[in-house]
Design goal:
The chain is of the alpha/beta class. Helices cover 41% and strands 16% of the residues. The longest helix has 17 residues, at 182-198. The radius of gyration is 21 Å and the shape is globular.
Length: 350
Amino acid sequence: MNAMEDALLREIDLHLNDDSTGDLDVSSIYFGGGTPSVFPSLGIKKIVDRFQPYLRNCKEITLEANPEDITTEKLKQWQDLGISRLSIGIQSFDQSRLDWMNRKHSAREAEQAVLLAEKAGFQHLSVDLIYGIPDRSNPFESEVSRLLSLPVDHVSAYILTVEQQTVYGSRVKKNLELAPDEDVVQREYTVLCEGLQTAGFNHYEVSNWAKPGGYAIHNQHYWSGLPYLGIGPGAHGFLEKTRFANVSNNRQYIQSVLSATEINELPREIENLTRADRYNETIMTGLRTKRGISLAQLSAAFQMRPDVETKKEWGQIISRGQLVTQELGRFRIPEEHWLLADGIASDLFV
């Protein structure tokens, strides 16, 4: 763990010493992408301390935590470090499905972890669920009921995905497992949307809901197309017109970072985005949010707008009711069509 800690701190220094980073003003920090809840608290403190001169406007520090890693001692340590939001990976309250997904925690442990975090004084608690899981032993309505009984102000929910490189993907391909049924996915998404709305949650992005004051600042940063640094193996970042991705192999990452004298020496994938790339991404991320997209802002930023560049497709999408107008000339996808967001957006790409 010490070698990884040293590498993370070294990469931060390389970024801070690089001219392309510019005058850094950190609005949020997010510890995620794996199992940060098993990372030593002292290591997390060192990372936060590295950014301390740039945190004058920082509004949120989030840490992803597995339910089985949450203890009273760790919660106190995280609070002392300035962690203001915990994102707890519950994923399901159906014990048979947790076992099927090889999760270490039980449904009961997940609930207890949230209650323990509330008792410790965390005001912002987020949990995640997976919907579309085949062969549930309990109806999805019971999942939503158990979720709503917990003191959380933010929920993220994702479709169970079939990825070829996973055991599940391989078993689906061999017809040994069922893939998510599209009708079940749509029904469970609807159940979730209705239940959370009734409980006072605002559906502000395809996969995210928040109570007033509970919006995830870090998430909104991504969707607004603002720059961000990605630190660590497999981390992605975006600065100005360039996207980069660190090597994902831990050993290679550590060796390359500790031997580097500047950020450009790291074995990263670098993509220089064209005007069309950035236009398409703005449409993609914008249509995933409740705010939607502004034709005027697109035109001002890129000298392009979808009702002109993709006039035929725009008209068809409007006529199908998959885009509706909002205040200030903005357009969004209605909730009932949000599961089709990526397909709708891609029809408007140039």
